[in-house]
Design goal:
Elements lengths: L4 E5 L14 E3 L26 H10 L3 E4 L23 E3 L4 E3 L5 H11 L2 E6 L6 H12 L5 H8 L10 E4 L14 H18 L4 E4 L12 H10 L5 E8 L6 H5 L1 H23 L6 E9 L2 H12 L17 H16 L4 E7 L8 E3 L5 E3 L3 H10 L3 E3 L2 E3 L2 E4 L3 E4 L1 E8 L2 E8 L6 E7 L3 E9 L21 E3 L1 E4 L2 E6 L3 E9 L9
Parallel strand pairs: 1-20, 2-3, 2-11, 3-6, 6-7, 7-8, 8-9, 9-10, 10-11
Antiparallel strand pairs: 1-15, 4-5, 12-13, 14-18, 16-17, 18-19, 19-25, 20-24, 21-22, 21-25, 23-24
Helix pairs in contact: 3-4, 3-5, 5-6, 6-8, 8-10, 10-11
The structure holds alpha-L-arabinofuranose.
């Protein structure tokens, strides 16, 4: 048993509204995310369009709200026109981003119809790598203009009479990265993003635009990139992106489990730059942070082992790329990153778990076989299902865990949301060795409470994963006690939990 944790919640002073777009996800034409992932004509569950029914069911169950598409690095070499019109006339192309062959059997029309079925808002990325202002504007006109022009009539001839009405648009992807097709300096990208934004807004004033921030916090240009890009685009864009992937360094699980602290600091630094540029330019409109790629990803293995092999081999269709098998530890980190983003909902306007199927994904599939939930599926699903109303940032009194990378972090981290009398508390316990008793003090009386926990399953260890044939990692119920205005429970070591409390109606009740 480690030192007890005390969490205090003041329900009379709720924070920002929970941005439901925080539970976005990402489908890239990469590896087996689209082909042999969501799309597999000939699979026993496939519909007439070729999309797998079993995968669609799992996507619905995951409860995501937004889907970013079609990349990622892929978009920086993509011609959107290749993916529209009769399928048998679509060109087969090299995809230089992932050293693969792109068949274009899935494009805007098929994907938008699938996203609609899955209940996902489409967030479309334009190519600012090999292409520019004109092609971005063409795609927008094709997608959103009602009719009567060459591009909008082409959409109608291709089977979509009504506009797609896509509101969210990413202005390119990771343009600061030398690996990116058409990589640019901050000046070059800032100008291009600003001019693309200007024309896109002329065509459709209702669009919401995301400027590409740094590819990661460790980029040598991080900070200056955001400042320069925002000086060009502030007033024209609504969000700037943050991409954040975390992995375990051998022998240092404590730092990995503290990844939320790193993301918190990253968000804070970008928020400061946004404030600085808005003040400098006298911009009054808000600029949100779109964490539009985040996850656990063993990038060291990809860069050092898999990528060199992939990039010197053939150009396969839908190769197995970065299909990380997620452990219990990874799932706990994913849950803790969601806690961090909810806590920073004052600045984080949306976020996309990268990616959705097979490629560093919560859902895995086998061609002709089954589809299953990885460990990381659960914290995402359980948070997305319950986080609504307003965010509440608790006061947490907990033990301390020293980490090599981020200094001391709290053993327990938590955030809560409140909607009417429904209170949800999301908790992570980063300690690896012992359980910790937790008391949650409320300023209102609780009628009842229940909890679910994700932790090491019986007979497993922190490296246990779910596979096609066996899925031992799943949420289990956790005992909680309610006594008037306190809820108590014990968190196992290495765990993520959701506590759902029904409050008695009180005088200081806040309605969602
Ligand atoms: O999600 C995988 C890749 O990670 C994306 O294509 C790219 O944007 C990022 O570097």
């Amino acid at each position: 048993m480690t030192s007890p944790t005390r969490i205090s919640l003041d329900t009379s002073a709720p924070g920002p509204v929970v941005p439901r777009r925080l539970f976005g996800t990402f489908v890239e034409h990469m590896g087996r995310c689209v082909y042999d992932g969501i799309f597999e004509p000939g699979h026993a569950t496939a519909d007439d369009a070729g999309f797998r029914g079993d995968v669609l069911e799992l996507v619905r169950e995951l409860g995501a709200t937004v889907v970013r598409y079609p990349g990622g690095n892929f978009v920086s070499g993509y011609r959107w026109e290749d993916g529209v019109g009769p399928r048998d006339q679509r060109p087969v192309r090299l995809d230089a981003a992932w050293h693969s062959t792109e068949t274009n059997q899935v494009g805007l029309h098929e994907f938008a119809a699938w996203a609609e079925q899955a209940g996902l808002e489409l967030m479309e990325a334009v190519n600012l790598g090999t292409r520019g202002v004109a092609e971005a504007a063409d795609l927008l006109e094709y997608a959103n203009h009602p009719g009567g022009t060459a591009l909008s009539e082409r959409r109608r001839e291709n089977g979509r009479a009504e506009p797609f009405g896509i509101r969210l648009w990413c202005l390119g992807n990771e343009m600061d990265g030398p690996w990116q097709i058409g990589h640019k300096t901050a000046e070059e990208y800032g100008r291009l993003a600003a001019e693309s934004a200007r024309l896109m807004r002329f065509i459709d004033p209702d669009v919401e635009l995301v400027a590409a921030g740094s590819s990661n916090h460790e980029m040598p240009t991080f900070g200056e990139w955001e400042r320069t890009v925002l000086r060009h685009t502030a007033g024209l864009v609504d969000h700037i992106s943050v991409h954040a992937y975390y992995e375990e360094t051998p022998g240092d699980p404590a730092s990995f489990l503290a990844s939320g602290a790193a993301l918190d600091a990253y968000i804070g630094e970008v928020a400061d730059i946004i404030d600085e540029v808005r003040a400098e330019r006298g911009i009054t409109t808000p600029i949100g942070i779109s964490v539009d790629e985040w996850n656990v990803w063993n990038q060291t293995r990809w860069n050092e082992v898999d990528k060199p092999e992939v990039f010197t081999g053939d150009w396969p269709v839908a190769p197995r790329l970065i299909e990380d098998d997620y452990t219990v530890t990874d799932a706990v980190v994913v849950g803790s990153l969601l806690i961090t983003m909810l806590r920073r909902a004052d600045r984080v306007s949306m976020a996309n778990l990268a990616q959705l199927v097979n490629v560093i994904a919560p859902i895995r599939t086998e061609p002709g076989g089954g589809a299953w939930r990885q460990t990381t599926f659960f914290p995402f699903q359980l948070t997305a299902a319950a986080a609504s109303g307003h965010v509440m940032v608790p006061v947490i009194d907990t033990g301390v865990i020293p980490t090599a990378r981020y200094g001391d972090v709290g053993a327990v981290d938590a955030v809560a949301t409140i909607a009417g009398d429904e209170l949800s508390i999301f908790l992570v316990h980063r300690g690896l060795d012992a359980e910790t008793p937790v008391t949650i003090d409320l300023d209102r009386s609780a009628a009842r409470a229940e909890a679910l926990v994700l932790t090491v399953p019986a007979g497993g260890d922190r490296h246990t994963v779910n596979t096609a044939s066996s899925q031992p990692v799943a949420p289990a119920s956790l005992a909680v006690e309610v006594s008037d205005s306190a809820v108590t429970l014990t968190l196992p070591p290495l765990s993520w939990a959701r506590v759902s409390v029904r409050l008695n109606p009180g005088t200081n009740r806040v309605t969602a």
